[in-house]
Amino acid sequence: MTNPTQTSRGIRLPYRLRFEPRMEQPGWLSALISLGAVMLALILGGIVLMLVGGSPIRAYAFMLKAAFGDIGVFSDTLTKATPLLLVSLAAVVAFRMRLWNIGAEGQFFIGAFGASAVVLTPILPSETSPWLMIPTMMLKARLNVNEIISTLMMNYIAVAWNNFFIFAKWSEGGFQMSPQFPRTAWLPRLTDYSSQVPLFRGLTTHLGLVFGLIAAVVVWWILYRSRWGYEIRLIGDNPRAARYAGINITRNTILVMMLSGALAGLGGMSEITGVVHRLQGAISPGYGFTGIIIAWLAKLNPLLVIPISILFGGLILAGREIQPSGVPMLIQGILLVCLIGSDFLLRYRVRITPRTQEA
After folding, report:
1. How would residue 151 be classed by pLDDT, with cut points 50, 70 and 90?
2. Is there a contact between 86 and 215 (Cβ–Cβ < 8 Å)?
3. Rg (CA), the chain
4. Whole-prediction pTM
5. Residue 247 burial (CB < 10 Å; 0-12/13-18/19+)?
6. Cis previous bond, 122, omega within 30
7. Structure letter (DSSP) for residue 13
8. Domain limits of the chain?
9. What average pLDDT does the chain have?
10. Could you tell me which of 300, 281, 295 has the C-alpha nearest to residue 336?
11. Contact between 149 and 258 (Cβ < 8 Å)
12. Who is most buried in 77, 159, 255, 336, counting CB within 10 A?
């Protein structure tokens, strides 16, 4: 008698996997699958650490202490989280309308260039009050980023554009950096107020974090409480219905990409004026690309971007202390792959069904 699981073509399992589109998604499912993706990424990262001779538990514990161990390192974590917060919001705005803006890294660099141009051209003299200097630099960043919002390849053009000025026109003594900005062009840091509040001594958190928090609230309000946000979400969910409702998709595409680029450019401005204080090449360890991971992990929720950016800021900060140094970047890569898989599970239900016996 022939085994029902075996045919002339070979051995077949008695069950098969089927993927069915989900008609609806329970509210808890997205959070559960995202948490599962993070846990799986940590497990896979731990396996890699074991293969290279490390201890996953000790490594993760060290990274946690290096990023959140005391108020000093937590301040540094918030400093790293600031540009991540802004570029993640840039991704959220665009992705919510299904505009795949992968150029946030280049927009970040152009934002830094625009801020530097205000000082180094100079558009304003060095003795200008910072209350006039800083908003002008933000405006300059916003105006410049709009020219490069198109494709991933524009990132390389943006970096090359910055390098031209760093290595030539604005180079300080032939070094690969511009002259340091005057103090009036620095974003205020907590440590600047240590004479009034001794607890702030040595804390590097700067005003850019406030920009990011305000931006998160504003983006949330735009997306979920304004008519424009309704149009953005409708276009992202159903472009045909949006067009039928009379929504101008072309105009919204331009406006959303401008806002997205402006947020990424603001991230570059905050980094260059709050941390680096001069234009140089190594101002981003991949903030623009990490922001994409954060946006997807937050499920395009602007408010959830805040805590996740802080966690990734800690991951970047811990990367300076742990060896091998590529481990945090490896974990980010694994997490991105797990998030892609989790998105599939959100859209499809996995069913195991018995095979019907074939004649």
Report:
1. very low
2. yes
3. 24
4. 0.82
5. middle
6. yes
7. -
8. 77-323
9. 81
10. 295
11. yes
12. 77
pLDDT at 350 over 80: no
Q: 249-281, pLDDT tens digit by residue? A: 888 888 888 898 889 999 999 999 999 898 888
Question: What DSSP string runs through 54-77?
Answer: --HHHHHHHHHHHHHSSHHHHHHH
Which CATH number, 3.90.550, 1.10.3470, 3.40.50, 1.10.760, labels domain 77-323? Answer: 1.10.3470
Identity at 146, one-letter amino acid code: N
How large is the average pLDDT for residues 134-144?
52
The answer to whether residue 89 scores a pLDDT higher than 90 is yes
pLDDT (average), residues 96-111: 84
In the chain, the largest separation of any two C-alpha atoms, in whole Å, equals 95
Q: What share of the chain is helix, strand, coil (3-state, %, to 5)?
A: 65, 5, 30
Q: Is the pLDDT reported for residue 135 higher than 80?
A: no
Residue type, 46: G
Cα torsion through 288, 294, 297, 303, rounded to 10: -130
**Residue 68: other Cβ atoms inside 10 A:** 16
Residue 335: CB partners within 8 Å, gap ≥ 6? 37, 38, 41, 293, 297
Which tokens hold the place of 101? 């803006």
130 close to 117: Cβ distance less than 8 angstroms: no
In one-letter notation, the amino acid at residue 308 is: I
